[in-house]
């Protein structure tokens, strides 16, 4: 048989590769099963919700209930309103982070000074410090300042989530861009500000898109901050979803699953639409210091 | 247009000192070439003049104006970067229009801009590429675009960082010839950086040879070529490099092994190095001339490089490189090489400083002491007869 070159993604057939594929398949099923179960649960009626049967009559009624006044009556939170609230809070948080974070990332990427790494590390530490550690003092402060259960308050606190991501990802983009481009702009007669706007900014546009959308997803998924810092007026979806589990009354697992699926839709669409940038953005933040 | 004067320019990156006090004075309209190997500080010098190096100290005056605290965009300098630094999101035309649109180099209507750009790109032979993006250009085309972005605008001083380095050999030679003719360059003070000695010799009104952050010699191309201040400069210019042969001095006579001896200036050191450019050695027929230094030896290797032949000649155990256009010479032949006495350079030996530590006037190792002379006893000069 004539020797054939393997194309990209092709592998030689061997028992080891079959074993590896089988193991991957098992892992795939194992990790995706909760999702499958959630979809099944969302399609079940109230009567069947605690059964473990795979055979049942599927219904879309749960989705209707979640989005209708009936859902609001059960949880005292309007779920459609919660989606809108989430959008306002997350978009707001990302915009604020971009306005402050892009110049910060640029400065951090271009200007190395004594202690610049410490500043960057401090910003990063906002990201990995446990939220529960700061939540109690924040709750007290928010109550006293009147920020409790407000969009402004949520946008503010979400900076802890979005800002470090945006600054760190964009810094690596700015560092990857040769400084000589801006130097050329300076010598062309442009001020530093114009050189930044004219040369640097357009070149990191893909980075800005990736960082912004990644930050949006992280903000959307945040649970602990809104759980403590919002009441019933400005509840985002993450908290609204759990309301269907009921507080002492009946727990509606099927409604919870349906609500969770709806809540997962916006970030999913966002992620799919920018998949290409997202991988690059993630690896940038992860691999490069 | 304007003069450029640099006094005591130092630059450091962190703990690394890139420049140790550079002094330069360029007259209005002068074309000055800085020649040096990579890492010598050539680019740092240019960027310091442009105001792009944070750690630069010293006085820089452009057209008589002190540049201390003056931002790069107010210095009136244009620079071509070795990395091209073309804006990737802009076309060639937009790249060239950038300095014209900044408003700092006169006001240009769109029609004037287009006309000026057409003019410059035609000169550089890239006028058919105006709508292309830098990523769609070859390196040579990119380099010419970068050069175009400089030439398109008026400036006090042009700073050109290896503007021909990435062109292929043929185009480089053609562009080198053209550069000299460009009205923009002949009329504007230009600081030009290169590692190519031919470019330096061909283009420079004057040349400054840079070594490890110090200007070791500044002079006209003829001066730098015929009177290199030390062995570093001697080696930096010329291909193949100058022959540098260790010699022991005794009574005003420097002996290169058993090969030959030359008369050296009085009051020299125990050891010197005798330098002879390969192209100054001439293959002679018949009786050896008496008014020149004569080396007799055997050809070990003859490399035929088109028009010229590069010879590696064994002169009584000393290997000497010579370049000739005489194609009759073959490997194994006995040859007679002759060189004018004025073209035989004598440099201080490597141990010069140690030997003369007490003497404040002592030449540094490798420093040029002068040209060799015919020894008093002519018979001694004859080489291995």
Would you spell out the secondary-structure blueprint of this structure?
The complex is a heterodimer of chains A (289) and B (385).
Chain A: H1 15-42, H2 61-67, H3 69-75, H4 79-110, H5 116-128, H6 131-145, H7 151-176, H8 179-187, H9 192-203, H10 205-221, H11 224-229, H12 237-243, H13 253-273, H14 275-287
Helix pairs in contact in A: 1-13, 2-13, 4-7, 4-10, 4-12, 5-7, 7-10, 7-14, 8-9, 10-14, 12-13
Chain B: E1 4-13, E2 16-26, E3 31-35, H1 42-50, E4 56-62, E5 65-66, E6 77-80, H2 92-101, H3 110-124, H4 139-151, E7 157-161, H5 169-181, H6 183-187, E8 189-194, H7 197-203, E9 206-211, E10 214-219, H8 221-226, H9 231-236, E11 243-250, E12 253-256, E13 260-263, E14 271-276, E15 282-283, E16 293-305, E17 308-315, E18 318-324, E19 334-339, E20 345-348, H10 352-355, E21 368-371
Parallel strand pairs in B: 3-8, 3-9, 6-7, 7-8
Antiparallel strand pairs in B: 1-2, 1-4, 4-5, 9-10, 11-12, 11-14, 12-13, 14-20, 15-19, 16-17, 16-19, 17-18, 20-21
In short:
With 289 residues, chain A is an all-alpha fold.
Identify the notable features of this structure and list them briefly.
heterodimer; A: 289 residues; MetI-like fold; 2 domains; disordered C terminus; B: 385 residues; alpha+beta; Rossmann fold; OB fold (Dihydrolipoamide Acetyltransferase, E2P); six-stranded antiparallel sheet; elongated
Write up what this structure looks like.
The complex is a heterodimer of chains A (289) and B (385). Chain A has 289 residues and is mostly helical. Chain A folds into 2 domains: 15-59, no CATH class; 69-287, MetI-like fold (Orthogonal Bundle), CATH 1.10.3720.10. Helix content of chain A is 74%, strand content 0%. Chain A is built from 14 helices and no strands. The radius of gyration of chain A is 24 Å and the shape is flat. The relative contact order of chain A is 0.14. The model of chain A is unreliable at 284-289 (pLDDT under 50). Chain B is an alpha+beta fold. Chain B folds into 2 domains: 4-236, Rossmann fold, CATH 3.40.50.300; 243-382, RNA polymerase II/Efflux pump adaptor protein, barrel-sandwich hybrid domain (OB fold (Dihydrolipoamide Acetyltransferase, E2P), Beta Barrel). Chain B is built from 10 helices and 21 strands. Chain B has helices at 42-50, 92-101, 110-124, 139-151, 169-181, 183-187, 197-203, 221-226, 231-236, 352-355, and strands at 4-13, 16-26, 31-35, 56-62, 65-66, 77-80, 157-161, 189-194, 206-211, 214-219, 243-250, 253-256, 260-263, 271-276, 282-283, 293-305, 308-315, 318-324, 334-339, 345-348, 368-371. In chain B, the strands form 4 sheets. A 6-stranded mixed sheet of chain B has the order 6-7-8-3-9-10, sandwiched between helices. In chain B, a hairpin with a 2-residue loop joins strand 4 (56-62) and strand 5. In chain B, helix 2 (92-101) packs parallel to helix 4 (139-151). The radius of gyration of chain B is 25 Å and the shape is elongated. Chain B starts with a strand and ends in a 14-residue tail after the last strand. Residues 378-385 of chain B have low confidence and may be disordered. Classes of the chains: A mainly alpha (289), B alpha+beta (385). The A-B interface holds A 178, 180-181, 183-192, 194, 199, 202-203 and B 47, 50, 52, 71-73, 77-79, 81, 83, 85-89, 98-99, 102-105, 149, 153.
């Amino acid at each position: 048989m004539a020797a054939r070159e393997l194309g990209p993604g092709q592998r030689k057939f061997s028992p080891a590769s079959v074993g590896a594929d089988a193991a991957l398949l098992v892992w795939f099923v194992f990790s995706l099963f909760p999702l499958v179960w959630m979809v099944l649960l969302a399609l079940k009626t109230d009567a069947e919700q605690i059964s473990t049967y795979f055979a049942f009559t599927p219904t879309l009624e749960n989705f209707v209930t979640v989005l209708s006044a009936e859902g609001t009556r059960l949880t005292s939170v309007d779920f459609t309103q919660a989606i809108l609230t989430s959008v306002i809070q997350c978009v707001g948080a990302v915009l604020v982070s971009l306005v402050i974070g892009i110049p910060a990332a640029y400065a951090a990427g271009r200007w190395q000074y004594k202690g610049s790494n410490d500043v960057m590390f401090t910003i990063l530490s906002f990201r990995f410090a446990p939220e529960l550690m700061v939540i109690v003092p924040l709750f007290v402060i928010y109550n006293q300042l009147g920020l409790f259960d407000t969009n402004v308050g949520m946008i503010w606190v979400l900076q802890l989530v979005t800002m470090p991501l945006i600054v760190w990802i964009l810094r690596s983009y700015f560092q990857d861009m040769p400084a000589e481009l801006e130097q050329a702009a300076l010598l062309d007669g442009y001020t530093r500000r114009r050189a930044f706007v004219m040369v640097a900014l357009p070149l990191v546009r893909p980075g800005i898109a990736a960082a912004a959308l990644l930050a949006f997803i992280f903000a959307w998924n945040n649970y602990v901050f809104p759980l403590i810092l919002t009441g019933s007026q400005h509840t985002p979806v993450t908290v609204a979803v759990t309301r269907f589990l009921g507080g002492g009354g009946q727990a509606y697992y099927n409604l919870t699953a349906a609500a969770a699926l709806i809540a997962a839709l916006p970030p999913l669409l966002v992620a799919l639409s920018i998949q290409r940038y997202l991988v690059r953005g993630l690896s940038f933040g992860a691999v490069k210091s | 247009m304007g003069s450029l004067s640099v006094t005591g320019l130092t630059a450091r990156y962190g703990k690394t000192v890139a420049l140790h006090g550079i002094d330069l004075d360029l007259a209005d309209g002068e074309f000055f070439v800085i020649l040096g190997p990579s890492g010598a500080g050539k680019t740092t010098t240019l960027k310091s003049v442009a105001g792009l190096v944070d750690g630069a100290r010293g006085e820089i005056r452009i057209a008589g104006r002190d540049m201390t605290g003056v931002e790069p965009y107010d210095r009136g300098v244009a620079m071509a970067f070795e990395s091209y630094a073309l804006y990737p999101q802009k076309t060639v035309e937009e790249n060239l229009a950038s300095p014209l649109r900044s408003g700092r180099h006169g006001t240009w209507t769109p029609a004037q801009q287009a006309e000026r750009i057409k003019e410059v790109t035609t000169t550089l032979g890239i006028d058919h590429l105006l709508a292309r993006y830098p990523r769609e250009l070859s390196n040579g085309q990119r380099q010419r675009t970068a050069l175009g972005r400089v030439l398109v605008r008026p400036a006090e001083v042009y700073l050109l960082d290896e503007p021909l380095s990435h062109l292929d050999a043929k185009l480089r030679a053609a562009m080198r010839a053209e550069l000299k003719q460009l009205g923009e360059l002949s009329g504007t003070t230009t600081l030009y950086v290169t590692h190519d000695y031919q470019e330096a010799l061909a283009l420079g009104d004057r040349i400054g040879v840079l070594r490890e952050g110090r200007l070791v010699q500044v002079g006209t191309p003829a001066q730098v070529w015929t009177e290199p201040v030390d062995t570093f400069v001697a080696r930096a210019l010329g291909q193949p490099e100058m022959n540098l042969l260790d010699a022991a001095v005794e009574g005003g006579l420097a002996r290169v092994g058993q090969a030959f001896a030359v008369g050296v200036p009085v009051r020299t050191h125990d050891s010197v190095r005798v330098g002879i450019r390969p192209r100054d050695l001439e293959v002679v027929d018949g009786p050896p001339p008496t008014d020149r230094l004569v080396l007799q030896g055997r050809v070990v290797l003859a490399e035929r490089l088109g028009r010229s032949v590069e010879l590696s000649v064994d002169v009584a155990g000393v290997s000497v490189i010579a370049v000739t256009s005489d194609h009759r010479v073959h490997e194994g032949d006995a040859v007679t090489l002759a060189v004018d006495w004025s073209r035989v350079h004598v440099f201080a030996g490597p141990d010069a400083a140690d030997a003369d530590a007490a003497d404040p006037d002592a030449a540094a190792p490798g420093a040029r002491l002068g040209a060799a002379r015919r020894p008093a006893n002519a018979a001694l000069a004859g080489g291995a007869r």
